[in-house]
């Protein structure tokens, strides 16, 4: 199986052949993968080097000319470092782009905290008008990317080495209902699905799968809650900062009695490199820890 990042490179390279409006802007990351595309389309594959503010500025400028920029680097360098440029060059100028990250929250722990971005979705969520996709499989990443490049809006596609074994049919609109239960609603985001599914295997819960987290699918959540009884318990498991979507869930259920638990990456910095699986366990995002936390929350009412 290829990775999401590899699928992004191959898919976007083919899209460059088919769509003369498309342009790719890089900051060294994945430049080797795009070398054949750059040779074929030297005017539409641009590598600005390790200059992330310029990366966003060039993307904004290309958008002003009518092109559809696909802007790519690690999440920490794509969202956190040039955040002011994202806010102004896309938001304030009201231009569109597709930002595609790599690295997830801690895909490469040996890179240290400079290469980790657990707060990227929460940070983008402070801005208006962004669609945020968090695929859980390369097939899903390709489907969401192909949808994103056809528009003129602002889209963030968050890629990770962490991925589910089996893809699901995603459209970029709303959550998928995988099963229904009576004891609560659990929302698994992107690559968290397999661990969450294992964790709730013996629990009588509704399981929703989210690969598009903004706009937040309030309608599906409300329908799911409506089938669980008078009082609703909701757990959201996200592969980035814990609690990122709890406010959205609370807003969706504001007129209903409910409790919401947000599970995800903790705020405490883990200063030992380790491996990705060790970081997942440390943040209690492995199946055993999720079973304990979800079961404890649902059983506490």
List key phrases describing it:
Rossmann fold, 301 residues, 36% helix, alpha/beta
Concise overview:
The protein is an alpha/beta fold and 301 residues long. It is built from 12 helices and 12 strands. It folds into 2 domains: 155 residues, Thiamin diphosphate (ThDP)-binding fold, Pyr/PP domains (Rossmann fold); 123 residues, Rossmann fold (3-Layer(aba) Sandwich).
Q: What is the count of β-strands?
A: 12
- Tally the structural domains: 2
Helix count from the secondary structure assignment: 12
Name of the CATH architecture of the largest domain: 3-Layer(aba) Sandwich
Identify the CATH homologous superfamily of the largest domain: Thiamin diphosphate (ThDP)-binding fold, Pyr/PP domains
Largest sheet: 7 strands, mixed
Order of helices and strands: HEHEHEHHEHEHEEEHEEHEHEHH
- For the residues shown, what is the average pLDDT? 96
Strand order of the largest sheet: 2-1-3-4-6-5-10
Spans of 5+ residues with little confidence (pLDDT < 50)?
none
- Fraction of residues in helices? 25-40%
CATH fold-level label of the largest domain = Rossmann fold
Radius of gyration over C-alpha positions, nearest whole angstrom: 19 Å
Q: Return the structural class.
A: alpha/beta
Strand content: 15-25%
Please identify the top-level CATH class of the largest domain: Alpha Beta
N-C termini distance? 42 Å
Shape: globular
